[in-house]
Every structure is written in C-alpha cells, then in structure tokens.
C-alpha cells in the first residue's frame, strides 16, 4: 500500500507505518537535520528507509497533481501552536499546519489518513478550533474562502454536517488520546491521534485496545518480585514500595491472581537492557551513545525514575519543563539520557542513526512518534484497508457471475 508522509521529522511515524505494510511514495520534511538523519540511514542501506523519496521543503510547495492511488496520508503537524510548553498560539501561530494537511488530503483523496499531535490541542482553550480541524478533515472539499474567518468556515461545515449531504469527498473521522505506555512503549507519552477512512471504504474501525498497564507492573514488582528477578536485582537492592502506590499494591496482593490479562508497563530499565553506561569503555561500541554532562535536579526538573516508564521526552536538550530527558537512578544519581537511550525510549531500532548535534538530535527524538506505537496503529488501519479491497474484489466477482448466469 502506498503512502505519503507529511512533516516526517526524524522518521518515527514513517518507520512504524512501513513496518505495518505501507510504502512511502513521498516523504516531506522541512528541517535540514531531520532530512539528514533519514538520508544518512539511506546511505547506510537501512532497509525501511532505503527507497524513500525524501523531499526537503514545505508541504505547501509540493506539486501533488501527478500522484495517484495513495492509500494513506500521514504526519505529525508541528505541535508548538498547541503544546503546553509553547506559546499556545493555536490558529494564530504561523506554524499551524493543519490547514495544509487538509489541503493535501483533498488533493490526494487517500483511502485513509492518520495525524498525530500533542494532547494540548484537546484542552478547553482550543476546543472549537479542534472541532474545526476534525470537520475540515471530514469534508476536505468544503474549503475556506479567501479572507473568510475560520469561525465562519466552521459554521458552514457544521451546517453541511447537520444537513446530511453525502455527495463529494467525505471521511469518517475518529480521534483519541493515546498513552504510549499503555501500548508497550517505555514512556508516558500522551498524544492525540486523528484517523479517517474515506466513506466509500465502508469499514468499522476503532483504536487498538491497550495491552499494558500500571497494575500489572506493580504486581510484578511488589507482589511477586518477578520484575526484579528478571533484571537480576538482589533482594537487598530492591527499592521499598512507593508510598503513593502503597494502598494499590496492598489491594493487588489481596485480589490479583497470576496470569493477568494486561502486560506490565515497560520501564526505563526494560528499555535499556544491553546498553552500557555511557561513561564506560563499552559505550564506544554504541552509536549516538555519548555521555552529556550537566544534569541537575531542581524544582520542576526531577527526571525519570529507572523502574517506571520515562516521562515524556521533550524537544530540547534539557527536556523542559520537568527534566523528562534525565534519568534518576535508585540511589538518587542523575544524568541525561544519551541519544541512543532516548531512541530506545521512542522504540527506534538500534541500527537507526541520528544526525546532528546533541540539541538537534534530541529535538528530533522529542518530536517523534514512537515507532512501535505507529506500527500498532498503522497495522490496524492497514488491516481494514486490505479487508475493504477484498470486499470490493468479491463484490465485483459476484456481479460478474450474475451477468454470466443471465
């Protein structure tokens, strides 16, 4: 299945979708360093990206007129207009690229699309604009008129929806906030996913069910001890029960039975299995694994504990606010995650290399979609598109048989 990737960044969403069976016919990214990362991996013949057609530029400037039969349009429009760490400019921010994403969907008419953004876009101050985005994606051909305020365009879209017209290009759109940790990513990362299927696909779809949870992790850590046994942590070095989870652990010990349905959240310790301390001699054998000095704990900058999923990686070398790019060891020692460790937390393969300075590579990783989460969502979409095509083939064959019978 052919796809087009917009706002590709360092390639996280694209890698995951490639693992799900999509082949990018076009990958567009304006940032030089992110493009260099993808191109460097092409030079290294990394299999998932070696055939990507990478365009460094603005998605608004590309001529899409010659592209046909696109199954999926995907991308992560810049999150800064809606991020809690940004200026919250929303539609007034020049970096708001959702109108451009809608425009590409209108031109390419893909069978489906998937877009990702920060959870902040769902908060109350952006509620009306978020609904506006969803309605534009539902009816991409009802475009905004020149000099028309977006609230007036929103009203037109609302009227169209309530009137119930079915003519023209239309998508069935659903959206949900997904926490990556609940899907096996070793990081608490809440992001909005917007998925749409072209109405003629006639598919019933919902977001994949969660597979991991906190209760299962606490059960293995403080009820059975399996977690510590797996990591060869002796009883004398195992931390005490966290006070904040004391009652929950007591309840788990009394009521939970072996063979829990959910898997335990993956922790930082789980993610970094096999990765040496960046201050050791062995670290030289790992690409992008250089020790970065200067990590300090202060209010609002506390880091990620080793035996829980990491806090959300942010697009900056300090991970502000909250120290999300910093590791806290059980003894209180702190240090910055290396680029390779951060890539592990974003579930990038070890063979995938990042290009640029410390701050540039950490920005790419902070902006990325976890590869495994992209694969999970992408596989679910792909299965529905395959089923839609199979149904179409059967329906066509059935018509042919009836004609022959006549």
Task: Record the SSE blueprint.
Elements: E1 2-6, H1 12-19, E2 23-29, H2 32-43, E3 54-56, E4 72-75, H3 98-108, E5 112-118, H4 127-138, H5 150-163, E6 171-179, E7 190-198, E8 212-213, H6 214-222, H7 226-230, H8 246-255, E9 263-264, H9 268-271, E10 304-305, E11 326-328, E12 334-336, H10 339-345, H11 358-367, H12 371-405
Parallel strand pairs: 1-2, 1-4, 2-3, 4-5, 8-9, 10-11
Antiparallel strand pairs: 5-7, 6-7, 11-12
Q: Can you identify the CATH class of the domain at 2-202 and 370-395?
A: Alpha Beta
- If you average the pLDDT, what whole number results? 89
**Strand fraction:** 5-15%
pLDDT under 50 segments (min length 5)? 83-91
Strand ordering within the main sheet: 3-2-1-4-5-7-6
Kindly report the CATH topology of the domain at 2-202 and 370-395: Rossmann fold
Number of strands: 12
SS content category: alpha/beta
Instruction: Specify the CATH homologous superfamily of the domain at 2-202 and 370-395.
Output: Vaccinia Virus protein VP39
């Amino acid at each position: 299945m052919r796809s087009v990737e917009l706002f590709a960044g360092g390639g996280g969403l694209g890698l995951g979708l490639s693992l799900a069976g999509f082949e990018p016919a076009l990958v567009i990214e304006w940032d030089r360093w992110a493009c260099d990362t993808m191109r460097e991996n092409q030079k290294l013949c990394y299999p998932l990206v070696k055939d990507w057609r990478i365009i460094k530029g603005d998605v608004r400037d590309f001529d899409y007129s010659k592209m046909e039969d696109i199954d999926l349009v995907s991308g992560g429009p810049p999150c800064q207009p809606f991020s809690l760490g940004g200026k919250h400019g929303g539609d007034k921010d020049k970096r708001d690229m959702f109108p451009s994403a809608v425009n590409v969907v209108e031109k390419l008419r893909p069978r489906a699309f998937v877009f990702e953004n920060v959870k902040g876009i769902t908060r109350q101050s952006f509620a009306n604009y978020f609904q506006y985005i969803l309605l534009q994606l539902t009816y991409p051909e009802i475009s905004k008129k020149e000099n028309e305020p977006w609230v007036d365009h929103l009203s037109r879209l609302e009227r169209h929806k309530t009137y119930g017209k079915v003519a023209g290009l239309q998508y069935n759109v659903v959206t949900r906030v997904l926490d990556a940790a609940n899907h096996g990513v070793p990081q608490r990362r809440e992001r909005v996913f917007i998925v749409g299927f072209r109405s003629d696909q006639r598919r019933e779809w919902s977001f994949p069910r969660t597979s991991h949870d906190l209760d299962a992790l606490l059960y293995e850590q403080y009820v059975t001890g399996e977690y510590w046994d797996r990591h060869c942590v002796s009883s004398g070095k195992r931390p005490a029960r966290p006070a904040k989870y004391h009652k929950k652990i007591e309840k788990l010990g009394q009521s939970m039975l072996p063979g829990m349905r959910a898997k335990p959240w993956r922790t930082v310790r789980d993610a970094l299995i096999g990765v040496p301390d960046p201050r050791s001699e062995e670290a030289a054998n790992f690409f992008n694994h250089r020790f970065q000095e200067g990590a300090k704990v202060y209010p609002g900058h506390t880091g990620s504990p080793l035996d829980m999923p990491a806090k959300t990686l942010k697009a900056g070398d300090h991970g502000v606010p909250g120290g999300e790019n910093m590791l806290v060891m059980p003894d209180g020692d702190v240090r910055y995650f290396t680029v390779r460790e951060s890539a592990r937390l974003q579930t990038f393969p070890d063979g995938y290399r990042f290009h640029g300075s410390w701050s540039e590579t950490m920005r790419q990783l902070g902006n990325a979609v976890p590869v495994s989460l992209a694969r999970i969502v992408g596989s679910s979409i792909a299965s529905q598109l395959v089923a839609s095509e199979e149904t179409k083939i059967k329906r066509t064959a059935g018509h042919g048989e009836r004609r022959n019978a006549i």
